[in-house]
Amino acid sequence: MARIALIGAGRMGSRFSQAIRKSGHDIAVIFDPMETPFAIISEPQLAGLHTRDFSEVLSRDVDAVVICTTADSHVAIAQNLIEAGKKRIIIEKPLSQSLASAESLADLANRFGVRIIVNHGRRYCANTRSLKALDGNPATGSLRSIIIKMGGGSLGCVGTHWIDLCNNLLGGKPEQVFCALSHETPDNNRGPQFFDPGGTALFFYGTGKRAIIDLGDDVGIVGGADFIFERGMVSWKTEGGDWSYMHRRTEDNAKPLTFYGLPLIADEFRSVPPDLVDYAVAAIQDAFSDDAPESGIDKAVETMEVYAALRWSAAAGHPVSLPLEAAAKREIYTIP
């Protein structure tokens, strides 16, 4: 049984407090500068663990620390924890507000031998693993294209989940991206210090694979997602509902892809509804594992590089190639 400190007791902090206990570990201390944060309102029995003094976290002998604040403070808090000798840290996504600060934190963690896990939860999702298992399957062939159709904007806060999913399924970060932001973005509900526009993003990977994320501020519905293989497709309309899976008949597998009108047959795809607490449990397990991280800081840095490239592309009005130039790395985006 490990002792875990929790920094940030809002809605995501509340989920992690549940995940810590569901994992069989103890909450050592909960830091939040608010007098009565959401997690304490939701579970008053946690009030005795709550402190508004950050030094209490730094001085506690804990096995891991979870950071559930907004992105503007992630890097500074993690740096303080590393300097205080903490060796296992979990950070809620998005990792940072600039690529340069994300890279700096990754370098610091590597120098001090600190394991940092970033909670891009779909890396722990059974549906993601099932999609990866289909990639190269004789019935479907290679995964070639992903189309994410979402509303609600927030290309930074929400969109980094989808960016990371595309990177995970398509073999790493793209070589080139293009992005156009929404024409109008509403005020951010986390405060006026944040600006997190939606938009439409195109990704071009070195193997010819590609992805589209349409996350407009002017769309208020969940449109779903399509995962398109050489000879089949997996789709969902609601992520927690049924997923459809269709592919060519076995006798048609060897026929040219130009025969795109061949009939498809329905097959079974066992989908699992998303569960944010279970994802947090998996992130905790990842933090305590000695195996290669499933959602380590290196992957989160790649996600931040793609996000920074998208914003750089939108400002420039043309496609942008990766790796990014120094000026693009330093640019700060006030995402929550």
TrEMBL record:
- Gfo/Idh/MocA-like oxidoreductase N-terminal domain: residues covered: 3-120
* Pfam name, any one: GFO_IDH_MocA
Q: Which residues cross the membrane?
A: none
Q: Name one GO molecular function term.
A: nucleotide binding
Concerning PANTHER family, the annotation shows:
BILIVERDIN REDUCTASE A
Protein name (record):
Putative dehydrogenase
User: Species name for this entry?
Assistant: Ciceribacter lividus
